[in-house]
Amino acid sequence: MSALIEDYALIGDLQTAALVGRNGSVDWLCLPRFDSAACFAALLGDEGHGHWRLAPVGADECAHRSYAGDSLVLESVWETDAGTVKVTDFMPQRDRAPDLVRIVEGVSGSVEMLGVLRLRFGHGAVVPWMRRDDDHHVAVAGPDSVWLRSEPPVSTFGRDFSTRSEFTVEAGQKVAFVLTWHPSHEPRPALVDPHDARDACLADWRAWADRCPLRGPYREAVLRSLLTLKALTYEPTGGIVAAPTTSLPEEIGGVRNWDYRYCWLRDSTLTLETLLALGYEDEAGAWRDWLLRAVAGDPADLQTMYGLAGERRLPESELDWLPGYERSYPVRVGNLAAGQLQLDVYGEVIDSFHAARRGGLGGRPHAWNIQRCFLEFLRDHWREPDSGLWEVRGPRRHFTHSKVMAWVAADRAVRTLEEDPSLRGDLDGWRVLREEIHREVCERGYDAERGTFTQYYGSRELDAATLLIPRVGFLPPDDPRVVSTVDTVRRELLHHGLVRRYSVECEPVDGLPGGEGAFLACSFWLADALFLTGRTKEARELFERLLAVRNDVGLLAEEYDPEAGRQLGNFPQAFSHIGLVGTALLLTGHGTAD
Ligand SMILES: OC[C@H]1O[C@H](O[C@H]2O[C@H](CO)[C@@H](O)[C@H](O)[C@H]2O)[C@H](O)[C@@H](O)[C@@H]1O
């Protein structure tokens, strides 16, 4: 039986990230980048697919754990009959090879410890050769090499295709393990001092967190979300991944298992707006520059997602040797949705440029050219059906949310021109375009009989994405159509107090078998819509309910099964954490609808 998704904590070095279970096992780690093959893939299989457990002999789970202050340095405390130990796990921010550091510290008594390391490169498929070299245990297979050492050296030996470390820690003693990856054709990189690295790592994260201006009741939750969003950033390029995992299921045992280790324009532009709203201009600027590089070219070739450096080919395939999280099969890498037409993306990107300008981020001369090209593309294509923000794998439709976001694109472009007449653009033509889209959405996307915006033209289905209509400024919050849409979505998509993105009961629009949990980002959007339509108390209650869904270290997956009380989907997911920060800002008077 795998650990629960919410049993994991995240550590990372701004180029990749690892998931550490409450049982002391690192069950997921891709090296050297987020989108590289995993060398620990037990998350999607079992220990034989690679993991590294470090725990007192015979103990199941740590007694409690937390991050050291506002950092990504994880401290797990183990209480045993023989004494107490603390294990500190982190990945030093990188200026060289990636390291995973685990420091065991005796707190009281004398505790026997066991480390079991099973490296399985190639997403759990490749068993490396091991050798000893210069106080290290070295694993090599093909392009990958991993070096393990401990300070002080402890008894470490091979058994059953694993590397075991057996030692005892007394109160006050420390044993530090450092696992270092590097390309196997290169010499071993310089050694990192684990204790100095810990201090530096803590100082870096704290300095970053200190820049958050938000005070008050939600500061701790917001900061953890911000730290998580920052941890999903690939620092060398400024790209931001949607989540560090692939194929954590949206339904246990189901097929809705996708690879999120890529940079979605939608998720990332929302991350940028979130960071910018809190003054994190460096990250926002790095993302904006990433975006300008990634999307350069014909606007018709715009993808919904890219690789960490803007790579375009992300072919989807199935890893048939991995059984999947709790047998949720297939495990996929790559993502077919990259090539879908999703019209909302144009609106999100242009909106983020608009937010960046208003947030004081200095312009880039070619940024406006790209927006103009996008607008011209939309003018010719906005009437086409698309796959929508939910990336349905069924037929393309005229999704109401996609058209609303096409309106956002035109609206922001018009407003930018009005604010800065020195820019070139077809102001009159774009005003007409904005008006045309608005009229059509109100005529064809709104069901007057039911009193609600619908998922797509002519459908009776609902879509929680229509909750964003007041947030993006398409209609004012007190418009009766907005108020009744919020009520209808709340009545029909609410599932044990949280919101489903759409109904999957009868003939699902997404073309996929099976169901899924409540969608956490949509649940935050309902809280926003309730707040904007004046129902502050209900908004706050829903927000508090959502805060309670976070795991013990403040992390959220994509979805939640309220009946089973379990998190579902890739973890931790940027979309959910963006939702959390957005709602907290609204509730505390720091955010506004556009
Ligand atoms: O459910 C079907 C789709 O699910 C994934 O997309 C979802 O995650 C994206 C990243 O967070 C988000 O941008 C999108 O709105 C979500 O629907 C998956 O990546 C798709 O391939 C899949 O069709």
From TrEMBL:
Molecular function in Gene Ontology: hydrolase activity
Pfam families: Glyco_hydro_15, TREH_N
The entry's keywords: Hydrolase
Cited InterPro entries: 6-hairpin_glycosidase_sf, 6hp_glycosidase-like_sf, GH15-like, Trehalase-like_N
Span of domain Trehalase-like N-terminal: 4-136
Ranges for domain GH15-like: 216-583
Alphabetized PANTHER family for the sequence: GLUCAN 1,4-ALPHA-GLUCOSIDASE (PTHR31616:SF0), TREHALASE (PTHR31616)
Name of the molecule in the record: Glycoside hydrolase family 15 protein
Organism encoding this protein: Streptomyces ehimensis
